Amino acid sequence: MGHRRMPAVAIIGTRGYPSYYGGFETAVRRLSPFLVEHGWDVTVYGRPGATDPADPERDPRVVSRMTKGVDSKALSTLSYGFTSTFDAARRRPDVALIMNVANGFWLPMLRAGGIPTIVNVDGLEWEREKWSALGKAVFRAGAKVTAKWSTERVVDARTIGDAWQTKFGVGGTFIPYGADVPAPLPIEPGFTHRGYALVVARFVPENTVGQFFDAAERLAETHDVIVVGSSGYGGDLDDRAAALAERLPRFHWLGHVHDDHRLHSLWQHAGAYFHGHSVGGTNPALVQAMAAGAPIVARDTVHSREVLGADAGEFTGATPSEIEAALRGLLTNPARQQELSENAVRRAVDAYSWESVNASYERLLRSHLRSTEGSPHPSEKRAR
């Protein structure tokens, strides 16, 4: 075996490569080609039918491996996590990158094979209202197992690292999500630049969607309000969005928007973007909204304050009247919109570029390579 064998990494816990489903998927979609470019043999585990083999963004050098699992809300993550971890343990990569603490239950399989594991722990999933009591218990148990059996953890916000240190006695390496500054895009037909309020969120209670709808009822008397998102399976909030769109001419519910260009355009031209997420760490949508230059009003949480810093957004309480007042104040102040927009882009570029995010992952993976005969020593090659 030659001394310069490429180090091998297995990436476990997403729907596959390239996938556009959420934050983890986007991170893996950006990271995998970067690692290949930097001398890695990359295998991404996925679910059959979840990605498009003909996707023009696919880098053919990234190996996709599909394993079987149970497609249900309760069991998909655990079952696919088990089969992909079992397969990876047999194939013995030099290091494994695992997304989601629910996959922590299977870490002993990798530990038994001497494979170092780095787990991106995501947010504090057991605090999310969307999960059942059983779901919350599974995530909390998975986190405990992850704290015990993982070699290292990645936290996407310093607040999450602090929470882990407090709850489980271990911290993690801080690596956030990244974003790209989009080129100037045409405005959504029928709207004016800086003339509308926007929200982009999954319809779950902890994203302050209900309170935003209350605020939007009054706001839509004078301004356009655009809502992107849904619950994914119907429900009260979806019903309410549909009813508001039918009753109020200036309330526009677009549902889930798959097209990145359209989404970036909506952020780019918004007069006020409301970010109501109350749990989780660094939110990928908030980072991308910053990069697109949206003037941001965020629900006041430690996580949003960490991401936006001192001057890249405004903060509001969670009541409908506070939300309405903050959005209306921004929609009627063009100078403040411009200032917040410029500050947001600057902060996204300085603190959340994909280049720096990917380089941080590459350094961390390389520092944990198991010392096999053919692998370069961690000091032999560093990311730029």
Account of the 3D structure:
The structure is a single chain. The protein is α/β, with parallel strands linked by helices and 384 residues long. Helix content is 41%, strand content 15%. The chain has helices spanning 23-37, 76-91, 107-112, 133-149, 158-168, 209-219, 236-247, 260-269, 284-291, 302-308, 320-331, 334-351, 354-367; strands at 8-12, 41-46, 63-66, 95-99, 117-120, 152-155, 173-174, 196-200, 224-228, 251-255, 272-275, 296-299, 314-316. It has a seven-stranded parallel β-sheet with strand order 3-2-1-4-5-6-7, with helices on both faces. Helix 1 (23-37) packs across helix 13 (354-367), helix 6 runs parallel beside helix 7 and helix 6 crosses helix 11. Mean pLDDT is 92; it is low at 372-384.
- Based on CA inertia axes, which overall geometry fits? globular
Helix proportion of residues, in percent? 40-55%
Poorly predicted parts: 372-384
Beta strands, count: 13
Which band does the percent of strand residues land in? Answer: 5-15%
Q: Figure out the total of helices.
A: 13
**Quaternary structure type:** single chain
Strand order in the largest sheet:
3-2-1-4-5-6-7
Mean pLDDT: 92
Work out the radius of gyration: 21 Å
Structural class: alpha/beta
Reading the helices and strands in chain order gives EHEEHEHEHEHEEHEHEHEHEHEHHH
Q: Biggest β-sheet, characterized?
A: 7 strands, parallel
Q: End-to-end distance, in Å? A: 27 Å
